[in-house]
Design a protein that fits this description.
2 copies of one chain form a homodimer. Chain A contains 24 helices and 6 strands. Chain A is mainly α. Chain A folds into 4 domains: 33 residues, no CATH class; 148 residues, Alpha Horseshoe (MgtE N-terminal fold); 103 residues, CBS-domain (Roll), CATH 3.10.580.10; 170 residues, Orthogonal Bundle (Tetracycline Repressor, domain 2). The radius of gyration of chain A is 33 Å and the shape is globular. The interface between A and B is large, with 124 and 123 residues.
């Protein structure tokens, strides 16, 4: 009996009863699988049209549906490229970027080739930094250049700035001369300044034009205009912006009206202005877009509010993480090592300040030996002082960054903090003194701890306000390092005042 | 000799030598004052035109110049109303609001009457809540109604919602019927939802209109349109939005093109959606404006990105303050009592958790009595554990609020935190064990504290991630109360593991 070579998974012709059994078994397995699939289909909605897929992918709150992510993973496991493309095609680029953030590195590699080239351009600026690098490494410089040329200059620069130097040079070389020149100029500005954030594409009109002139110009040069714009900047003879006409105002004005009579005052952004400042200005004046000018006051680009939204999110994230002693930005895709690098340094600094507090305690070893209750109670004084300090500190850091706290009202703010501290200290001292006194059956111990907490909360109020104010005066970020300073102060003063007073009052 | 009655400060006719001396003295004083004034003028720039005043008032970073605030205070002290009006007139309403925030209550009362009525409408929505109440109390209901009718419905509602019920009723009664109806509807939506945030003024066009139809309609009904808009919503037969045409696209398209062929997909906002979610959607999709729909999917208003900027700032402020144990919003104008109310409750909770940790220590009184070094070193273990926990916690809270942390990657995130914890713990344990061992001249003490810190940092990593994840699962704000829980865990485990291990290893 000759056994024919079998192609995998293809039923062979039935020669013998054995073979027939094998085939029967296979058919039953296949049937079972089919039934199971049907069952699966019953659980899940039919997902064939892009609308159905998008509705399924996004939950009510526009977060990605974990079941959708499973669909993608399943398709990748099956190697079903067409299904992957279908699934990816239906999503907004921001959601595709979000999806990539949720996938593990292996799955990302499988999914990326199925993102259509046109969508890839819009996905890139949305990605977390480390994932973006990963994606870019899979593309050839020529393809990357083409992708970037489809973007507005600010988005393209954001992608370029994260590349290694060699890759950046190759990609620039593959661009057209004018695009390359634009990119090189943009990249010559400092990171996190207006020059980097702005898009160079603006709509500008000379001051002597009428509404009709402007509309005709826009219809004729539609292709050179930015994809989306909200204001037309009116420029004087030396290319200096002198006003702006919102598109919605232009649109409802009569054709013969002159721009000069329509225009509204502008808030100019200097090309070297820091992004935090820009965000502050946009928030304060409710700006939608603002012209960017160079040293000579000439219009060189514009910043639009949609970019500002992301900066505000980023800056508040930096503040909040700095206050917790996390130095670098950490994202979903950060490796364990990156996270360690961003957190360990502050823990080491904390180790030194903790040793400092410790050595203060060791001065009072004799007192503790005589009265162990001191060791039992001393962490309470330190802990509550630390919390008061953190409260005052956080409020001050926020007030500084929103510019509600300045030299004008610094003294008044510190004075208010001190009074708040006294009231809080009074209430807490009463509770703590009573609690400790009753617990340890000692009136004098209660008095001692009450006095210590009053001293420490007062110190906490002062440190929590003065440390960030001083850092800000020295032009340093008031959020960074402040918490370590403040808790060092409250720990040391807490232990010292409690143990010191105990030595005087109790022993 | 008859003495004539003298009008104050008016030189009397010189009758005698004495009188002449008096007059001479007065003239010299006046001359000196004039000289001094001249001198003052030399120091300060000439501030006569509105442009000069505005340039002087705003520093490079658009924060208010303290010297400008002094000018206002000086003018108020002199009772120089005309100068006050000049100084206030030159500023943007947002800057006037800012100025009022920096002034004390007495000065505010003097300054407010000099703000022109037209500007007041725009200043009101910019004010801190408590200052706004103060300002509104100085206005009659009729005047207030007039001021509010000048605003877009979202801004007017924001002002109305903060009034007492009686005042609100009076102001509403003074409005025109249609404005009143609009306000009552807006106020019927929950606070912090789309219904409150949206402006009811939108530009909508039926799907069968052409570009030309739309522009003509806008020119004809210019007065009824919102002051500023970015998108024209295309609506189907049942008033459901089916797409949007950006104004900048409409403007450069030919008149005969149909809206149906121009329109872009929209992201609809449900009228009862929470503002935090809305901010997330705007940030994710870089939206400029979005249509708000009711339960039936009908267009009822729009939300624009400039309102979102303020919400993002507000939400991040809430997060950061909640993490520091500050419950209510505190502003520049908050009284000492308000600040105490927002901070004292958490300090009291902290008092109880600190007592808990303390009673754990008291279990080990005998050990401490035998070896005081334990009392000296134990705060180090608790402090570093607390800091590790705060790091993990803050990163998790941020990731949850930006939806980078969801059920999909929760397990992976926790696992990463634990590994980060182990590495950090290893390094810190080594340093701490060495330091403590050398300082206290005991190898075993070094080993004990090293082991304890490894246990505590691991616990901190778990608590820092699991506490906010659990709160978020229970639909509670993960930032509120988390820090208290987490430091309670790290304090208790820190003291317990160190003192417990010491009992086993050392004694």
């Amino acid at each position: 009996m000759s056994q024919k070579p079998e192609a995998p998974n293809v039923p062979a012709a039935a020669d013998t009863a054995d073979d027939i059994d094998i085939i029967r078994a296979r058919m039953m397995a296949a049937e079972a699988e089919l039934l199971e699939r049907d069952h699966d289909d019953d659980d899940r909605p039919q997902l064939n049209t892009p609308e159905e897929i998008e509705d399924f992918a996004l939950q009510d709150d526009y977060a990605l549906n974990p079941e959708y992510i499973e669909l993608v993973v399943d398709a990748a496991d099956r190697g079903d490229g067409m299904r992957l493309r279908e699934l990816l095609d239906a999503l907004h680029p921001a959601d595709v970027a979000d999806l990539l953030g949720f996938l593990s590195e292996d799955y990302r590699e499988q999914v990326i080739p199925w993102i259509p080239a046109s969508a890839l351009a819009e996905v890139l600026p949305e990605l977390d930094d480390d994932i973006r690098e990963e994606v870019m490494d899979t593309l050839r410089p020529g393809d990357l250049a083409e992708v970037l040329q489809e973007l507005d200059s600010d988005d393209a620069a954001a992608v370029l700035e994260d590349m290694g130097e060699a890759q950046q040079r190759e990609v620039l070389a593959a661009m057209t001369a004018s695009d390359r020149e634009a990119m090189v100029t943009t990249l010559s500005y400092e990171e996190e300044t207006a020059g980097r954030l702005m898009q160079r594409e603006v709509v500008a009109a000379p001051i002597f034009w009428s509404v009709g002139d402007t509309i005709e110009h826009m219809r004729a040069h539609g292709d050179d205009l930015p994809e989306l714009f909200f204001d037309i900047y009116v420029i004087g003879p030396t290319h200096k912006p002198v006003g702006a006409v919102p598109v919605s105002l232009l649109m409802r004005s009569r054709r013969e009206v002159r721009l000069e009579d329509l225009m509204e005052p502008i808030t100019e952004i200097q090309v070297d202005m820091d992004q935090e400042e820009i965000a502050y200005i946009f928030g304060k004046y409710h700006l939608i877009s603002a012209p960017v000018v160079d040293d000579g006051g000439r219009l060189v680009g514009q910043i639009t509010v949609d970019d500002i939204v992301n900066i505000i999110q980023e800056e508040s994230r930096e503040d909040i993480l700095a206050l917790a002693g996390v130095s670098d930005e950490e994202g979903r895709g950060s490796t364990v090592f990156e996270v360690v690098k961003s957190r360990l340094p502050w823990l080491v600094v904390n180790l030194f300040t903790a040793f400092l507090a410790s050595s203060l305690i060791s001065v009072f070893s004799d007192e503790i030996e005589k009265l162990v209750a001191l060791a039992v109670l001393m962490p309470i004084v330190a802990s509550i002082g630390g919390n008061s300090g953190t409260q005052a500190l956080t409020v001050s850091v926020r007030a500084l960054s929103s510019r509600e706290l300045t030299t004008t009202n610094a003294l008044r703010t510190v004075w208010r903090e001190v009074r708040v501290g006294w009231i809080n200290a009074g209430v807490i001292a009463l509770l703590l003194g009573l609690g400790a006194g009753v617990w340890q059956q000692s009136f004098l111990l209660g008095v001692t701890i009450a006095l210590a907490i009053m001293i420490n909360i007062t110190a906490a109020s002062l440190a929590g306000t003065l440390v960030p104010l001083t850092l800000s005066r020295l032009d340093r970020d008031p959020a960074v390092a402040s918490p370590i300073f403040v808790t060092m102060v409250t720990d040391c003063i807490g232990f010292f005042s409690f143990l010191g007073l105990a030595g005087i009052i109790l022993l």
